[in-house]
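Components:
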Amino acid sequence: MNVSRLATTALQYVFLGTAAFLSIFPFIWMVISSTNRSIDIIGGRTGIGDAFGTNVANFFAQVDVPLVFWNSTKLAVLATLLTIVVSSLAGYGFEMFRSKARDRIYALVLLTLMVPFAALMIPLFMMMARSGLINTHIAIMLPTIASAFIIFYFRQSTKAFQTELRDAAKVDGLKEWQIFLYIYIPVMRSTYAAAFVIVFMTNWNNYLWPLIVLQSNETKTITLVVSSLASAYYPDYGVVMIGTILATLPTLLVFFVMQRQFVQGMLGSVK
Amino acid sequence: MAAGKTGGLKRYYDLNGWLFVAPSLLLIAIFLVYPILRSLYLSFFSGKGMMMKFAGFGNVVRLWNDPVFFQALTNTVTFFIVQVPIMITLALMLASVLNNDKLKFIGFFRTAIFLPCVASLVAYSVLFKSMFSVDGVVNSALLAIGLISTPIGWLTEPFWAKVLVILAITWRWTGYNMIFYLAALQNVDKSIYEAAKIDGVPAWARFVYITVPMLKPVILFTTIISTIGTIQLFDEVYNLTEGRGGPANATLTLSLYIYNLTFRFMPSFGYAATISYVIVIMVALLSFLQFYAARDRS
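Structure:
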């Protein structure tokens, strides 16, 4: 009995250990490789090399790093803020002001979660081209602002918002928009934090739509730069690794600082 | 008088209700509803670039005779049929092991296994491409432990390229699914497991007869979102294969084919829109099937 119990425990550790190692390894690989020459990276070298300085210098020579980073940050932060404002208004609205018509519309909004982006991108591209918005960051943001998933998330979370607070505010003569601004937002700040983390990650990592719309070097994001560096005929993997580190660092940082909110944001839907 | 007052109040609240949801509805109408209908409309037109003429069901006929389309369809279906069950099983196993508080370093394991979710799809695809090169670190490791005797052409052989894509997606998304199961397991009463243990029910049977049925709604939810995600697979295959879906179209997915038809070659908007509707129909059909299969038979 005891032996089999011990064996089970050992097996569990081996299973978890293997999974954890495989999960972390690519990150370690990324850091080690950033110190190696391209030829060594492709050759599977696992030791730390001395090419880190060269790789960084080459990366900065090939890429306008401040501009690219600014593009990514500006896009991700702005799009995230807009998404959260617009979608939380809707989540609040759908939950607080129930009506038959709006409940039906809400069901339709949820249905749009299933719409594949591939079926939208051609008309969206034509629409942006006609409006002269190709190569602009506005074109990237516009289709992402109203997010069915975030509306859903806020509506679910609003169910926990105490209506007594709203009733009391109404007695005090606050208007509906004031209640939202001065009571709902502060009370729900952890919901907002979680939504921020999840939407920021999505926007920072956004790829296909920017790939279609952003065609000049002045507007490109870090994700696009990494992708184009890596798809060269003979990619310099040393340089590529610096790019992947820069592309991963902000999301990694956000994750470690706001781990709880991140998980909460992800799970928002299955409460 | 009283009736008139409540009527006015009702109208007032209804106006507020509409105001709160209006910005979202407007944006969804313009950037989601209009494009999806427009895609349907476009699918009845053929021609290159902006020169389009009405073609009726011409695109469907072209689809039917397009071997590349069928290849992309087969690849896409292969990916989700093989990958989703592997990933869901793996995630469930990890979650049920991690749900044991008595194990040490639980926090570390949980964070480590979840970490891939933070990687951008482009960044990890690029990392995988460098790790799976012919002389790369993965082949070296497999050779060293004697699992293979000659290096595998992960990026050059059609079969192994498919395996690589499946490995890559599994790496990226298993931890994501695991978190949903962990959260759900936290709500399952621990005493059920204790009782089963005392009755001598082995671990695998507890997993099959307690964990899986308890988590059925979450499993259904994650299966649906994973399937929808895999049907739309694009970033990974694009970045593993320089946008070609190679070798020999072995990793070409429907989304990548649509992208190539529209933005790489001379654009055939109408035909690409037709293919995008194949994805729409697949997603709708599969979601319906999964709901139907998992409905409560009471």
